[in-house]
Each structure stands twice: as C-alpha cells, then as structure tokens.
Design goal:
The protein is an alpha/beta fold. It has 13 helices and 9 strands. The chain has helices spanning 10-19, 39-42, 56-62, 80-94, 115-128, 142-145, 148-154, 171-183, 203-214, 225-234, 239-253, 263-268, 275-282; strands at 2-4, 28-32, 47-50, 68-71, 98-104, 132-137, 156-159, 192-195, 219-222. The strands form 2 sheets. The chain has a 7-stranded parallel β-sheet with strand order 3-2-1-4-5-6-8, sandwiched between helices. A two-stranded parallel ribbon has the order 7-9. The chain is globular and about 55 Å long. It starts with a strand and ends with a helix.
Length: 283
C-alpha cells in the first residue's frame, strides 16, 4: 500500500495520476485534510483517508496498513517542521517501511532560507531511524509562469536573481519521478535524488522566450532583494512570504537552484518538458 499526503494538492494529484499508470488503484491511499476535495480521487478507485498535518492523531489512524508513504512537504512555511514530525512519528508507530520525502534541491548546501525546514525534516528522519528516500525537488517552473500575466501587463518581469541559472521542471515531471521511485523494485532507503529539469535558464532568457511566444517585448528588471520583496508585498503578497520569495531569487543568483544531473529524465526515461513548451501552454 502506497499513501500520499496532501493528495488533493497540485503535486499530490499528479503523483496519484502517475501511480495509477504503474499500479492498481487498490494499492493507493490518498491522505487529505478535506475529504470533499478528494471525491474526484475516489472516482478513480483510490481509497481516501482523512489526515491533517496539524492533527497527529489523524495520521496514526490513516497510516494503518501502509507500506510506503510519500510525505509531500506541508505548504505552511514556518510550521513545517512540527507538522512533518507529526507524520513521521505516526509512520514509525504504524510500521511504515519507507518514507519518500519531498525536500529541496541540494538542501544540505542550499543558500535559500527555504531549505532550513527541509534540512530539519531530513535530520529528524535520520534521528527517528525510519527508512527513507529523499526527493530533493528543484524549483517548479510554474513558480515563474504565474508571473507572465503581470509581466505582459507591465512590460517587465521583476526579480533579484541576476544571471543565476535555474534548472526548474514542471510539477508533472516531479510527480512522475516520485511515482517511479515509489514503485521501483530496487530498495530505495538511503537514496537521495537531486531532481531538476534538463534545461537551465536565467530570468533574462525566460523573458526572451516569453517575448517570442507572446509577441510582446518583455524585459527582465533585476532589483535588490529588499526592493523586490517590497514590490511583491505591494502586489498583495503577505510580507513574510514576499521576503521568502525574494530570498529564493537571491539564492538563484548564488547557484542554489542550478543542477545538471538530469535525474528526473533518468528516472522517467524521457526529457523533462521544455521551458518554451511550458510558456507556450501557459500563454
């Protein structure tokens, strides 16, 4: 039995989609906080169980009979460590044989502040002694695609990444890689997968593709981190989240989201979706 936390989230749903191509729906358990949102998963024959990151008792019940668990990192930055501990403790108690955890690309050496909670979770997995495999996900290309509309409206794409290279991939690619790892016959405990897209680009290069595909000239406007954070906050993002995104862009300038391992395509057997393809589809 394979269980997936955050099963109704954007990544979780895609993982289940790919798992269904590799194993029977009878082998898949979708763990969700809101059962109403999970009704579409039930239509595929997947068992749905209620589990809330902030309510550890729900996981103790939900993980009964589970062999492998995909722990998709919580979206609640600042609360992740405790929430992840709840899940890991419950998995240990339930006798789960393997946890696959979605961490951050090169988390142990990353300049991104976002890495802190991931490193703490990786450390806790070791301390608890539960067999685990790390799926260190790079940036989702969608993180930048959502900025295309305002960039087109304003004629400029803002950031503070300078000429840093980004080796992002679509959520679909990360989801397929996760499904592969969860269904491999070879033992996975102790493995670390640095997952990223086959293609690397700067934000200037991204803007060139947006310009070509949209027919409208879009320039990359590089700012200082504080200035970029202030601009994001002015656009309606909460202050702490705006600061975290700006810090991540600065991390890009330091090589934090660059990787040439091509691990996703090695796992899936095909190239990751190209940046141009994803921009075109988004437009």
């Amino acid at each position: 039995m394979i269980a997936i936390t955050g099963a109704t989230g954007q990544l979780g749903q895609l993982v289940i989609k790919h798992l269904l191509q590799k194993t029977s729906a009878d082998n898949i358990i979708a763990l969700a906080r809101n059962l109403d949102k999970a009704k579409t998963l039930q239509d595929f024959g997947v068992e749905v169980r209620q589990a809330d990151y902030s309510q550890p008792d729900t996981f103790v019940t939900a993980l009964k009979g589970v062999t492998k668990l995909l722990l998709i990192s919580s979206s609640e930055v600042g609360q992740r460590i405790q929430q992840h501990k709840h899940v890991i403790d419950a998995a240990k108690q339930a006798g789960v044989e393997l946890i696959a955890y979605t961490s951050l690309l090169h988390a142990d050496s990353s300049p991104l502040a976002l890495a802190e909670e991931h490193v703490a979770t990786e450390t806790y997995l070791k301390e608890v002694g539960i067999p685990h495999v790390l799926l260190r996900n790079g940036w989702y290309t969608e993180n930048y695609l959502v900025s295309i509309a305002p960039a087109l409206a304003n004629g400029g794409f803002i950031g503070c990444a300078k000429d840093g290279k980004i080796s992002s991939a679509a959520r679909e690619d990360y989801a397929e890689a996760a499904a592969v790892v969860l269904t491999l016959d070879a033992p996975q405990a102790g493995k670390v997968y640095e997952l990223s897209g086959d293609e690397s680009y700067t934000l200037t290069e991204l803007c060139a593709i947006i310009s070509e595909e949209s027919g409208k000239k879009i320039s990359y406007i590089d700012m200082e981190e504080a200035e970029f954070a202030k601009a994001l906050e002015g656009a309606g993002l909460p202050g702490p989240f705006a600061a975290l995104l700006a810090n991540s862009d600065t991390g890009v300038s330091k090589g934090g989201l660059f990787d040439e391992s091509h691990t996703i395509s090695a796992l899936t057997g095909h190239p990751t979706a190209s940046l141009r393809q994803l921009v075109r589809e988004y437009l």
